[in-house]
Every structure is written in structure tokens, then in C-alpha cells.
Automatic annotation (TrEMBL):
InterPro entries: Aldolase_TIM, DHO_dehydrogenase, Dihydroorotate_DH_2, Dihydroorotate_DH_cat, Dihydroorotate_DH_CS. Monomer. The active site is at residue 181. One of its GO terms (biological process) is 'de novo' UMP biosynthetic process. This is Dihydroorotate dehydrogenase (quinone). It is a peripheral membrane protein.
Length: 365
């Protein structure tokens, strides 16, 4: 169905097409009878897909990357596509509109996107309310990707991350600290050793303070403030544009702050090599490039981090995954889990099932 609609969707501005697609998914899943057929089409699970990573039980290793469902409006619908985990956000303490439109662009010849969204979201309180109200999809891990508001200076950024961490702590299974988006001014400066170490140390201290012996949630609902929880895995999402020396610094920081893992990588500010004419790319302006052109660099970063850590670092691979081969490449480089986003735009929702089936076939050889 998606491939039949894709030419029409690609005639619309990308943000409008995204909204219509997820709204259409929600409407389909709310239709009796049709809902069961839809879920049956995309359902595919096998014991061989199960993973335990940073202490969490994943039903399968294919996840939805942050940015697709920033405000938690469609996470239960997206779970129907067969994801093992969903990452919500990036969310900030206060609501913000993000950058002026247009801010999302397709590069069909390159199977890529350029975005300068700028952490547009309704704020952490709105996300927390939805999670409390709607509960969680069965057997799906939820992650919370947190950032800072654009108006918050870097020297005060820690307070923004702390606010998001505290409000989402009882509601998500793991956290991702996003300091690598190129679309919030000066945000990437927080990747430098001193500010990043200070930020992550503060969050780990808060993690210890909030953690308590685990108490199961009731009635299949998410936990609520006041319930008892365990310490949450904290991951760091890094840019693909870091130098080898900066990656070495990241590894030292991960060790010093006892992070659970790394997400490699965010979007890139690089623009080569692209098939799309340079003049057209220049007209699109600034923003992070995602999709197939990011595939090689993302894999390089994963491989380097895995090799330098002796294979001990838990890595979520993301960047340029739009078919079975690109997914397998990430696992071979050292990723324990993977995430997709841009690949869904070009390959469609069947991508998740195709990757899972390939992993089961590989495990049976």
C-alpha cells in the first residue's frame, strides 16, 4: 500500500507527507477488522531475534530512531510495524516551534533527507502526560531522547537535561542524551570533553538518586511518579563528523561516566558525495543529512568504536539503513541494535520485517 501511495506523498511537502502518513496509520489501526489484517501483515517474531542489551530485554533488535515521533503521539501505532523498540523525542523542557519552514527536504536520487527541524516539540510535560495516559505497547522498549531548548545557553544546558530526565524517569526504559544535532546553535560544542563529562556525570548522579528497587507497573500501564524504579541506562548519541581523536575522547568519557552505550550516528553536516546537483543542495540550505549517503561513515564510526572498546561497548547503529544489506553491515561492524528513520521514507514500513527475516535466516545457517 505504501509504495502505491508513495508517488502521491512525494508530491507533498515532506512534513505534510509525514503527518498524513502517521495519521493514516492511526486511522487504519482504529478500523475493526482492517487493524488485524494490517498487524498480521507486518508481524514477524522469532526467538532468534531476542536480545538483552544494556540490561533490557528486546524482542527484536530493530528500532525506530528519534525524530519520527517527537511527542509520543503515534508510538503505539508505530509499534504495530514490528519494532522491538521506539525512541521518542528529541524532547526539551519547554515547548518550541523549531526552525522556520521549509526545514525538511527530500533528495530522492540519493535516497536521503536534509532536515533543520531544530527540536520542534510540545515539551516534556506533554510527552509525559501522553505516556501516563496511553501506557506502553506490549513487548516494546521505550527510549527517551532528551535535549536542551534553543534559548538555553550552553553553560545552563545541564539543567534542561536534568528536567527532562526527572520527568521521564518513571516512564521510559532508557535515555539518550542528544548533544549532536546540527540544528540547534552551538549544541555540538557540548560534545567536547569537559562539558560532556560534566553533563553525563550529573545525569548519572541523578540516576542513582532516583533509582529504587524495581516494582512492577500494574494493569499493563506505564509506571507513575512515586513508584519504585531501577537505574536507567543512559546512552550518548554522537555525530558522524567527529574526528578519530574526538571518538577516542568519547570512549574515555563513556568509561569515566559509566554510560550504557552509544548511538552512532546522528545526521551529518557533510554534503559529499551526492547525486543531487550541488546547486539544488545549496538551495536547501543548512541542516543534517541522513539516509543512504550517511551509510558508510556511520558504519566506520561503529566499527572504530567497537574495535577500540574490544567489542565491549553496546552500540545502536543508525544511518543509511534502507535495506537488508545495510542493516547487516551495521551488525557486522559491531552494532548490537539498529534504528531506522529515513530508510522508512524510501523503502516503506515493510523494511522492518525484511530485516528481521534476514536475521533469522542468518541465525539458522
Amino acid at each position: 500500500m505504501y509504495h502505491a501511495l508513495k508517488p502521491l506523498l512525494f508530491q507533498l511537502p515532506p512534513e505534510d507527507a509525514h503527518r498524513l502518513t502517521v495519521q493514516g496509520l492511526a486511522a487504519t489501526l482504529s478500523t475493526p477488522g482492517v487493524s488485524d489484517l494490517f498487524r498480521g501483515r507486518y508481524r514477524y517474531e522469532d526467538r532468534a531475534l531476542k536480545r538483552r542489551v544494556f540490561g533490557l530485554p528486546f524482542s527484536n533488535p530493530v528500532g525506530l530512531a528519534a525524530g519520527f515521533d517527537k511527542d509520543g503521539k503515534y508510538y503505539k501505532d508505530m509499534a504495530s510495524l514490528g519494532f522491538g523498540f521506539l525512541e521518542l523525542g528529541t524532547v526539551t523542557p519547554l515547548p518550541q516551534d523549531g526552525n522556520p519552514k521549509p526545514r525538511l527536504f527530500r533528495l530522492p536520487a540519493d535516497r536521503a533527507l536534509i532536515n533543520r527541524m531544530g527540536f520542534n516539540n510540545e515539551g516534556v510535560d506533554a510527552l509525559a502526560r501522553r505516556l501516563l495516559r496511553d501506557g506502553r505497547p506490549p513487548k516494546v522498549i521505550l527510549g527517551g531522547n532528551i535535549g536542551k531548548n534553543k534559548v538555553t545557553p550552553n553553560e545552563s544546558a545541564t539543567s534542561d537535561y536534568v528536567t527532562c530526565f526527572e520527568k521521564l524517569f518513571p516512564l521510559v526504559d532508557y535515555f539518550v542524551v542528544n548533544v549532536s544535532s546540527p540544528n540547534t546553535p552551538n549544541l555540538r560544542a557540548l560534545q567536547e570533553r569537559e562539558p560532556l563529562t560534566a553533563l553525563l556525570t550529573t545525569l548519572q548522579e541523578l540516576n542513582d538518586k532516583l533509582a529504587r528497587p524495581a516494582k512492577p507497573a500494574t494493569n499493563g500501564k506505564l509506571g507513575r511518579p512515586g513508584e519504585l524504579w531501577q537505574r536507567k541506562p543512559i546512552l550518548l548519541k554522537i555525530a558522524p563528523d567527529l574526528t578519530q581523536g574526538q571518538l577516542d575522547d568519547i570512549l574515555e568519557i563513556v568509561d569515566a561516566t559509566q554510560l550504557a552505550g552509544i548511538i552512532a550516528t546522528n545526521t551529518t553536516i557533510a554534503r559529499e558525495p551526492l547525486i543531487t546537483p550541488a546547486r539544488r543542495v545549496e538551495e536547501m540550505g543548512a541542516g543534517g543529512l541522513s539516509g543512504a549517503p550517511l551509510r558508510e561513515r556511520s558504519t566506520e564510526v561503529i566499527r572504530y568504536l567497537s574495535q577500540q572498546s574490544g567489542g565491549k561497548l553496546d552500540i545502536i547503529g543508525v544511518g543509511g539503513i534502507d535495506d537488508v544489506a545495510s542493516a547487516q553491515e551495521k551488525f557486522a561492524a559491531g552494532a548490537r541494535l539498529i534504528q531506522v528513520y529515513s530508510g522508512l521514507v524510501y523503502a516503506g514500513p515493510g523494511l522492518v520485517k525484511k530485516i528481521k527475516k534476514s536475521l533469522v535466516a542468518e541465525a539458522s545457517r
